[in-house]
Amino acid sequence: MPEQTFIVNGNRVTVDVEDDVRLLWVLRDRLGITGPKYGCGINVCKACTSHINGKAFNPCAVPVGQLGADDEVTTIEGLPDQVEPAQRGDHGLHPMQEAWLDRDVAQCGYCQPGQIMAAVALVNRVSAEGGTITDADLDTIRNICRCGTYTRIREAIRDGAERM
Amino acid sequence: MPNSSDPHDPAPDQDLGAPAAPYALDRRRFVGYVLGGATLVAAADLVLVEAPPASAEIPTAPQVPELYDLNDMLTDAARPTANLITVTINADGTASFELPRAEVGQGITTSTAMLIAEELDLPLEKVTVTLAPARPELLFNQLTGGSNTTISTYTPIRVAAAVARLALLEAAAIVLGDTVGGLVAKGGVITAGDGSSVTYGELAAKAAVSGDRAVEVELKSEADFTLVGRPTNRVDAVAAVTGAKDFTTDLDVAGALPTMVCRAPTLNGTPVSVRNEAAVEAMPGVTHVSQVSTGVAVRAETFGQCIDAVRALDVAWKAGPVAGESDATILRKLRAAQLPMPALPSTPLTQTVSGDFTFYFRSNSAMDTNSAIADVRPDGATIWAGLKSPIVAQQQIALRLGMAPDKVKVNVVTAGGSFGRRLFFDAALEAAEISQKMAAPVKLMWHRADDARVGRGHPMGTCRVQATVLGNEVLAFNQSLTCVETDFRHGLGEIITAAGADLPAGVGNLGFAETIFALTQEVPYDFGAVVQTLVETDDRFNTGSMRNIYSPDVRVAGELVVDKLAAKMRMDPYQFRRKFQRNPRLLAVLDTVAQAGEWGRSMPAGTAQGIAIHKEYKGVSACLVEIDTRPATTGRQIRNAVTGPRVTRVTFAIDVGLAVNPRGLEAQMQGGINDGIALALTSSLHLRDGHFLEASWDNYFYTRQWNTPPDVRVIVMPSEETVPGGAGEAGVAATFAAVACAYARATGTMPTTFPINHGQLSFEPKPFTPPIPQSPTDGLELTS
Known about the structure:
Chain B: It comes from Nocardioides zhouii. Chain A has 164 residues and is of the alpha+beta class.
């Protein structure tokens, strides 16, 4: 079986698994990293949203064989380490996670890791373009929340953006 | 993992020396128990509240199933304290409690922890609430539904905590050499008049007793609450935002490999034979292929390999019971089943106002698809799943496996949403069958396409309304709902009433349905003679109680006709509702949204407000929305999306009685608002040629960020009521109705089918063979 090597949450890992197995299952079923959730398997619901080399992506749509040994995958579990310790909040977490806590966004919580990872990438993108988060930006988020936490997600992203 | 179990059942032969059933002494004085054990365990009976009215309406049980007979039931029922719920004080000073309900996102672990912390004078973070496994001795008392959790557990949980507090105080009195009356308990520390103190943790063992004893306690006065009623963040929030919160498919159960099922191309079709079993078994990662009652199950090293295997299977199928049927044929059957509307008084002066509405199938579609872990061995089975009726799940799984119920351990796992879906245990039953057949533990997960096409949902139906108007009064109001059956075969959570609901020819289920309809539906206006009827007609679909059950459709039809009545009388819709409502709490929420939401403000053409009220779950609500139906909005182009009209502003007020956690209540209303918008505008299932077309979140259009209102305000009303009402479903009906009314006013045309976009198919249906789509491979080209 082919060996797959890449970096996840700061650690280089090697997994024996076929090239075409999507990264989501390598993370969840082989590495036990369960923060990225399954909601559709076809890159629609975005519950598995994570980062690759600092950009949002969906591991359900990436065959693991496409990753290189130096590709850096960050899941929700590794998000706090993406900022300096001084930037972390009361719970030792990334500013966006802290905003999420202060706004008590989660209901069932299933989609929330993906929502937070998408939010961080959105804020990074908008701020790289020199803007601030608008309603139009928030309307572009495709991550589904069946509990309907959208109102608090919008508030938390604006809040988190100010803290980032 | 949230499922450790230690129910502290006492030995059945212990003599309590107290009445078997605790009784209420006055409004705040109750009898509970200190149970024997090594640490302090305090208990209360779950029936400390008035029994829900539904229990008096249970159809008579027809027969007793073979494996769990009347003697078993009587033995369980006779054990004097087996049906108690218990609060345990641990040596580290924390309190723990196993809640016999399912947390599916509605926040009941948080509100329960708040009640215990309040009564014990303990910081919230020192209270741990987990979910109890199936406890058959609780009978009707382990069903999570009808927004009933807080209503039914509010007093018993407080009594159990108060018993623990009293036992701690009594133990402290001995340790500190003071009287109970001279002690002060605060923050988990008990202090005597002389300043000496002892912690709950130090007292946990000292307060333990060898036998059970009954004690009388007085609950804290609501006026003295310091935590209950204060907006509080969820106790599981940190776990949720760090990815540490475990759902069923996240659990690491030894040997339980990923498992999926290949399903028939028509709804509820069944497998006849597998033509390529050996070839699929030889695929990478695949360990087992087994034909089961619902399809062909595959077990593999990863879910990705399960998807490959499901897609590769070549199966001969027997068509399902609705083969050939479509929305149009079902609608014809519904029309044929409709009862004649009652005759209304006809005089030269009376006028009839009517409406006739159609509501298509909808999916309750939680994010966390149906899933379950099953480890079935020859001598017993263990199940893990998100279950709102775990007792009947345990009993039915035992029947399926041919085991006695006490050989089947059913663990309740926090679930990623329910919206009614988890009242049933379809995945748990299926996983048990698969595990038995494969003789291996399985982690079963339904694909999203399975969940949309075969999962349960809200049945299609029609709702007719007619009202008689004489001058400025409404003399009569008739409403008749005719729908595909809503499945209530989970009963009240255990097998006796479930069997009652499963009587032949639908008689049992219809009895349940009529009871639930009668107990939930009301017209909140003074409209003279009011008649509401329900006819259910077709039991071939996978349905269930979707969030708010009958109310969304009934209230939409009612409120749209109310707007027509107002127009007939040339009255403003808000003023009309003010005049005809018949409940002071309703009037208060109605006035509140009208004022806070600026009812009647000037709006551009193509935009409008709508207002609606609702009364249910011992609470009242009102909703005022603004909608934009102008072409610039409805014409927005978003890839693979439905845009359409947008609700731009929502003002929602609720009086739920005592709001244990106003922050959680607000969250539930915000969620219900998005459900109401979806039901009105975008979300439905399309039945064509025997199957539902939807297979993806980009087919089944639940509200998305581009549909959600940018401006939402929820007002939690101060209430005269001192007990809590239900929160989980209360946001849906008034919102759905207000959106429909606003749409009618903005467009000048009253909508009669819901959701309004059902007539046009907004996506390309995915194939039915193979039954699930392959995962894409272009994810690295789509980073953002």
